[in-house]
Design brief:
With 470 residues, the chain is an alpha+beta fold. It has three domains: 3-281, no CATH class; 289-400, no CATH class; 408-469, Orthogonal Bundle (Arc Repressor Mutant, subunit A), CATH 1.10.10.410. It is 41% helix and 20% strand. It is built from 15 helices and 16 strands. The strands form four sheets. The chain has a nine-stranded mixed sheet with strand order 2-6-7-10-1-11-12-13-14. A three-stranded antiparallel sheet has the order 5-4-15, with no helix packed on it. Helix 7 packs across helix 9 (360-371). The longest helix is centred in the middle third of the chain and has 20 residues, at 211-230.
Length: 470
C-alpha cells in the first residue's frame, strides 16, 4: 500500500507581544478576550505593524531547517469568512514565503521542507456541547488572535506514521534549542496532515494537537481510505477533523484550493529586507540537536541512541543531564539512569523534567548511594519512583521507609529461612531447573524488602544448596 503524507505545522513563536500589535502574547492565564485591541480585533481603520523580533525568530527557524531565505519579507491577506478572525482575512505570506527548499534529516531519509512562512494565529473557538459538528453553540476567545505563528510546510515525503512521529519530535527539539517556542504552552504546535493512498484523492486533517494524536489520526485515516478503495468507493478530496473522543476523523467540508482565498499583498504592511537581519541572527544561532548529539557521544562517551533520547525528547532533559555531568563523572551510568529510569518515572507521572521537583543534586545523590552500596540498584529503582513524584531527598526516603541496607549475617539468616520454607524449589534446582534458583532469590529479596544485593543472595543460595547436596 503506497501511502503519501505531507504536513503543515503551525508553531507558535515566543515573543512578548503579538505579531501585528502591542497586545501581550502570554495569554494562558488571561480572562477571555482580555488581551485584545482594535488591531487584533480587526476594527476598521486600525493599522498593523510587524513584530521584528518574531521575524528574526522565524528567520532562525528557516536557517535551522536549511531553507533558502527570501531577500524581503512581504505579507499577504488570505481572505476567508469565519468567526475566528474578526476582519475576515488572515495576514499571512503566499507569493513570497520567508524560506523555501529546506530539509530535515531523519534516521533513514531526508524530509524536504517546501516552504516556511509567518502568519497570525486565529482566535480560539470553544465548541460547547458535543463534537465540532454537533456543538450547541460556539464561544470565541480573541486573546489568541494575532499571536505570531510560523507555518512549516513539508513535501509529501512521509510513507509511515513512524516517520511523522520522528520528524515532529526532531522539529520540536530544534525549535526548543533555538529558544523560539515553548512546547508546554497551549496550542504551541498544531498539525494539519495531508494523506493519500494510491488510487485516492488527498485528504487534509485539520488542527491536530499532540504527537500521539497525529499518529492516531493518520493511522485511522489510512485505514479508512484503504477500506473505501478496497470496496470500490472513490476517496474524494475533503477536509476532515480528528475527533479525540471518537478516535476517528469526521468530515468538515470539501477541500478549498489556494485560489479560493483570493490572496493579495497587504497594503498596510511595508516590505522588510532580510540581509541585515540574517547577519544578526547568524550570531544568535545556538548549538542544534544534531550537533549536540555528536558532542554528547564524543565528550561523554555515551551511546548515540541514548544521546538522541536525552536530547530529542526534551531540551530541558538534555540540560539536566549536562548539569548532573558536572558533578557526577560516571557518564554512562548517568545516561542509563536518565534514559531508562528517570524518563520512565516522568512519563508515568505525565510530566516533563521542567515541571517536576527533581533536583540534580538529589538525583546524583541517588546514584552515589548505589556506588557506595548504601542501597542496591534494585532498591534505587523503587526509590526513584517516590523521588520523581515528590522531589524528596533519597536519603530521607530510605530513612522514612526503613530501607537501610542489611549486613551479610542478616542475609545469611534469610537465605537459611528461604531454603527451609521452599524445599520443592530447592529440589527443582538440584534437578537442573535454573528458574527455581531465580524464584528463591526473589523470595529472599521480598523478605529483605529488596535491601539485599541480589548477586550476594544468589551466591549464598548456591553455596548453601551445594553444602546440602554434599
Amino acid at each position: 500500500m503506497n501511502v503519501k503524507i505531507g504536513l503543515e505545522i503551525h508553531c507558535r513563536i515566543e515573543t512578548k507581544s503579538k505579531m501585528f500589535c502591542s497586545c501581550p502574547s502570554d495569554v494562558e492565564k488571561a480572562r477571555p478576550n482580555e488581551f485584545t485591541c482594535p488591531i487584533c480585533l480587526g476594527f476598521p481603520g486600525s493599522k498593523p505593524k510587524a513584530n521584528i523580533e518574531a521575524i528574526k525568530k522565524a528567520l532562525m527557524i528557516a536557517k535551522a531547517l536549511n531553507c533558502k531565505i527570501s531577500e524581503v519579507v512581504l505579507f499577504s491577506r488570505k481572505s476567508y469568512f469565519y468567526c475566528d478572525l474578526a476582519k475576515n482575512y488572515q495576514i499571512s505570506q503566499f507569493e513570497m514565503p520567508l524560506g523555501r527548499n529546506g530539509y530535515v534529516e531523519l534516521s533513514n531519509k531526508k524530509i524536504r521542507i517546501k516552504e516556511i512562512h509567518i502568519e497570525e494565529d486565529p482566535a480560539k473557538l470553544v465548541h460547547v456541547g458535543k463534537s465540532i459538528n454537533e456543538a450547541e453553540y460556539v464561544l470565541i476567545d480573541y486573546n489568541r488572535s494575532g499571536i505570531p505563528l510560523v507555518e512549516i510546510v513539508t513535501e509529501p515525503d512521509f510513507s509511515s506514521t513512524k516517520e511523522v512521529r520522528e520528524f515532529l519530535s526532531k522539529l520540536s527539539s530544534i525549535l526548543e534549542h533555538l529558544g523560539v517556542y515553548d512546547p508546554m504552552k497551549e496550542a504551541s504546535m498544531r498539525v494539519d496532515a495531508n494523506v493519500s493512498i494510491e488510487g485516492g484523492e488527498r485528504i487534509e486533517i485539520k488542527n491536530i494537537t499532540g504527537f500521539a494524536n497525529v499518529e492516531k489520526a493518520l493511522s485511522y485515516e489510512i485505514a479508512r481510505q484503504y477500506s473505501l478503495i478496497k470496496t470500490g468507493v472513490k476517496v474524494e478530496r475533503e477536509t476532515r477533523h480528528w475527533d479525540e473522543k471518537m478516535k476517528a476523523t469526521v468530515s468538515l467540508r470539501k477541500k478549498e484550493v489556494e485560489e479560493d482565498y483570493g490572496y493579495i499583498f497587504d497594503p498596510d504592511l511595508v516590505k522588510i529586507e532580510t540581509t541585515g537581519l540574517i547577519k544578526e541572527i547568524e550570531n544568535r544561532m545556538p548549538e542544534l540537536p544534531d550537533e549536540r548529539i555528536k558532542r554528547f557521544v564524543r565528550d561523554y562517551g555515551i551511546l548515540e541512541e541514548q544521546a538522541k533520547v536525552i536530547i530529542l525528547v526534551d531540551k530541558k532533559l538534555a540540560d539536566f543531564f549536562e548539569e548532573c555531568a558536572k558533578i557526577y563523572k560516571d557518564y554512562r551510568k548517568l545516561a542509563r539512569w536518565v534514559v531508562v529510569d528517570l524518563l520512565k518515572c516522568l512519563n508515568w507521572n505525565n510530566i516533563r523534567i521542567g515541571q517536576s521537583k527533581v533536583e540534580k543534586e538529589k538525583f546524583v545523590k541517588l546514584l552515589e548511594m548505589i556506588d557506595r552500596k548504601v542501597i542496591t540498584e534494585r532498591l534505587a529503582k523503587e526509590i526513584i519512583k517516590e523521588f520523581v513524584a515528590t522531589g524528596k531527598d533519597p536519603e530521607k526516603i530510605v530513612e522514612e521507609k526503613g530501607l537501610q541496607p542489611v549486613g551479610k549475617e542478616d542475609i545469611e539468616n534469610v537465605v537459611e529461612l528461604v531454603l527451609k520454607e521452599n524445599q520443592k524449589a530447592v529440589e527443582d534446582y538440584m534437578n537442573g531447573n535454573e528458574v527455581a534458583l531465580n524464584f528463591l532469590v526473589g523470595v529472599a529479596l521480598k523478605k529483605l524488602k529488596t535491601r539485599g544485593d541480589p548477586k550476594l543472595i544468589k551466591s549464598l543460595l548456591i553455596e548453601k544448596i551445594k553444602s546440602l547436596n554434599s
